[in-house]
Amino acid sequence: MIDWQAEVEKRQDDLLADLEAILRIDSERDVAHATKDYPLGAGPAEALTQMLTIAQRDGFTTKNVENVAGRIEFGAGDEILGILAHMDVVPAGDGWQTKPFEPTIVDGHLIARGSADDKGPAMAAYYALKIIKELGLPVSKTVHYIFGTDEESEWVGIERYLEVEPTPDFGFSPDAEFPIINGEKGIADFKINFKSELSTVGEIRLMNFTSGLRDNMVPQTATATVEGHQLDQLSDQFVAFAAENGLVADVQVADHQTVFNLTGKGAHALEPRAGVNAATYLATFLTDLPLDSAGHEYVTVIKDHFHLDSRGANLGIEYTDDLMGELTASPDIFRYDVENGGHVILNVRFPQGITAEVINANIAKTIDHANINSEVYGRVETPHYVPADDPLVKTLLSVYEKQTGEKGHEQIIGGGTYGRILDRGVAFGAQFPGQPNVMHQANEYMPIADILRATAIYAEAIYELVK
Length: 467
Known about the structure:
By secondary structure, the chain is an alpha+beta fold. It has helices at residues 4-10, 12-23, 42-57, 119-134, 156-164, 233-244, 278-286, 293-305, 356-366, 391-404, 448-466, and strands at 61-65, 69-75, 80-86, 104-106, 109-111, 142-148, 170-173, 176-177, 183-184, 186-194, 204-211, 217-218, 221-228, 248-254, 257-263, 267-268, 320-321, 325-326, 328-337, 341-350, 372-381, 384-385, 412-413, 425-427, 430-431, 445-447. The two termini are 14 Å apart.
């Protein structure tokens, strides 16, 4: 009998030191500064290199695939178990009480961007594999621990990896929740375009409207500039509106222009109700102003079809499946300027039984404006499900139950993980039941105790799958 938790505790200091080294790297995808050597930017490549360097130090064989993906190899056998993690992070954003890329421990919580998504769980799974290696345990399968570097956006890294390297036969991604995630909703973005065809003349003109960092993050802040005369009274109205709705307002007035800044709460787009969408609140406030026709249309459509409606009812896309649950809709990117019109990018997580094409048609039908159109924007992920009686699912749940004493059960979520790239792929941890989901939020953290618990679970799970 192996005391997995004891083996983890022997290596606790080393684990945390390696994790903190990874967390110090700002590995947000940065294609604006891409080079031939760094197709997704220097940060993701640096984090990948650091992870592979740690593995080389510990005697593993590694492979770097064009600085967009890589793997750690262990064992031998005809079947390949894939462990699938990512080294990239979403933008840090505002609202941090500590520096997001300087790991800080407060009350047993390791605070840093990527601590929960996905560097903390990724390092836990790595040390799990390291324990198996150092104990010299016999294995009958090959393990490929694969890292992508743009899971939070286009999945270019993992898709390139699968083009040139073998696809694992089965596996899991340490990038979600315990006890298991064996089903994931489909994911698609929709771009609602506002053509610059309406008049921009009015008592008050909407000059610009900007909100959102990524299409998978509920926007925490929003900014709009209006132009006109006698706008002084708007400052007090805006501050009062923000206070009534639990947001923070800031107003700047100069040269017949007023800049409104609103701060809500960011969250992962998989559950928009966990956040407070600053953009839709700001648009709601602006609808009461005598804006120009183009500006009024932009903010009114946002208010009427997106505000406080995370299930898409006001877009005509509300849908529920008995197995996978409700469709969710999160408007996450907002861009408008007086000369060029604007757009909204809507992130939708949808269950089986409906398609992105049907959703898009329903959006276009509901927002029935001559100068507005909707399009499917970017890649589409179809719903994914591995049955609960699959041996992979049963093994992982058995280990979870053994180590925690809690009953395991299947789960289906709106998040998208690398687990879905395998026909027999799931997500497994590392967030424990009862812990708040702080992924994609300011002050992201992971309890150190949970990192260690997850490592022990991963170690036994990997061994059970490959022994």
